[in-house]
Amino acid sequence: MLTSPPPRFNMAAHVLAQAGLRAGHPALIVPGGKVWSYADLEQAVRGTATGLLTRAHPGDRILMRLGNTPDFPITYLACIAAGLIPVPTSSQLTTPEVTKMARELSPALIVQADGIAAAEGNWPILPATALPAMRALPQADYAMGEPDRPAYIVYTSGTSGQARAVVHAHRAIWARRMMWDGWYGLTADDRVLHAGAFNWTYTLGTGLMDPWSVGATAIIPPDGTDAATLPALLTDHAATIFAAAPGVYRRILRQRLSPVLTLRHGLSAGEMMPDTLRAAWMQQTGTPIHEAFGMSEISTFISGSPMRPAPPGTLGYPQPGRQVALWTPDGPADHGQIAVHRSDPGLMLGYFGQPDETAARYSGDWFLTGDEGTRDASGAIAYAGRADDMMNAGGTRVSPVEVEAVLSIHPRITEVACAEVRVSPELSLIAAFYTAPDLLDDAELTRFAAGRLAAYKVPRIFVHRDAMPRGANNKLLRRALRREWEAAYGQA
């Protein structure tokens, strides 16, 4: 069982605890760019913390609008080191989406990069161009305190269609220690290449925070790297672990691969990986892929690992130290909604400013994920689908209600419903079904949505219908739309 964090704790101090012991060891490699030693990284983080404290006070919220560069994790950790509360956001968000977040959070400061959509309004701005000079400032002390106090906020789509701000405590990083053996097989000698962008939470945790916490080397490809070049980067940088979303593995496998001699295994998260894709990777590289299941409110908590691979057709096992149940109205069972006990140190503090929404996610002491599962005789959990209509877009959950709200204001659409549809055994996409007096142009609908939604939320398929399927109580049946489309065009 995982022990509790020390009573005086800071998440950034925990992540950089190896810096003094491994000062000259490479902490971050950006192929074709700078190699950051642990000494470089700690100086950059704590120097930036000093600079940020001239603009904000401990406890203030800092909205991060940065691109795919090392500025992102450095600023993130600098905020936490200083006792500020960073809110990392996707660079793909549009101005309306970011404006809504700013109005909800009232940030004391927005760290803003050029070319990234900015919030409307009169907000205090720190240009990203000011960050490099801060790195050389004297190092700020780590702001120590209770492990349960807020450390950072991330956004996730809610079933109501309103993006929810998820507040996490400093102790969340301590809980990630359960992943070291329960998913990664991570050691200080590892070189972890993560294919995601710096400003993606999957990369931030799996690709950066966790390797740094053990003193390993993180390798993040520069912005714009083609997936076809990733196998060469794995070889060139002697990577031992490769992490990516299933879509990246799919793109890599379009070419013939040679084994990477140093590679032990791959990691996958964000969306379900088809067995055919995993088998193809194993056949070409000779290495397994270990998958993890989680969500923004708790990160990953069920996974396969080198020590205990997931049986075929399952998500794997609850990580050592996790309390996971399959919850029903009558209590735990072998089939039910996947739930996590409220004592888990990785579980969120709550949704920012939404105590009722937070309370609604619990049944007694169990946090309900909204995902259904089945447990086999070995204790492995198989995924049985969503308890609601949430969609998955390249590893990020998207509420159909959020996308529908945008498309419903189109002047020629009379009704709209969105669902995730499977177009092949290995690929699913967001589809928008709409009623209108006549067929609308797909390209025009794409442009309309893209001006109001992050790119990953924009439907890839538009379907004109005469009417929407509804149940006896007039409830919209999104699952019926999905089943009908897959039966006609896709993969059921």
Notes on the structure:
This protein is α/β, with parallel strands linked by helices. It folds into two domains: 11-381, ANL, N-terminal domain (Rossmann fold); 391-488, GMP Synthetase, Chain A, domain 3 (2-Layer Sandwich). The chain has 15 helices and 27 strands. A nine-stranded mixed β-sheet has the order 2-1-10-9-11-12-13-14-15. Strands 16, 17, 18, 20, 21 and 22 form a six-stranded antiparallel β-sheet that branches. Helix 2 packs across helix 3. The longest helix has 15 residues, at 38-52. The radius of gyration is 22 Å and the shape is globular. It starts with 10 loop residues before the first helix and ends with a helix. The model has no long low-confidence stretch (mean pLDDT 92).
Count of extended strands: 27
| Global geometry | globular
How many alpha or pi helices?
15
> What is the strand content?
25-35%
Biggest sheet strand order reads 2-1-10-9-11-12-13-14-15
Roughly what is the average pLDDT, rounded to an integer? 92
- The CATH architecture classification of the largest domain is 3-Layer(aba) Sandwich
The end-to-end span amounts to 41 Å
Structure class: alpha/beta
Task: Describe the largest sheet.
Answer: 9 strands, mixed
Unreliable stretches (pLDDT < 50, length at least 5) are none
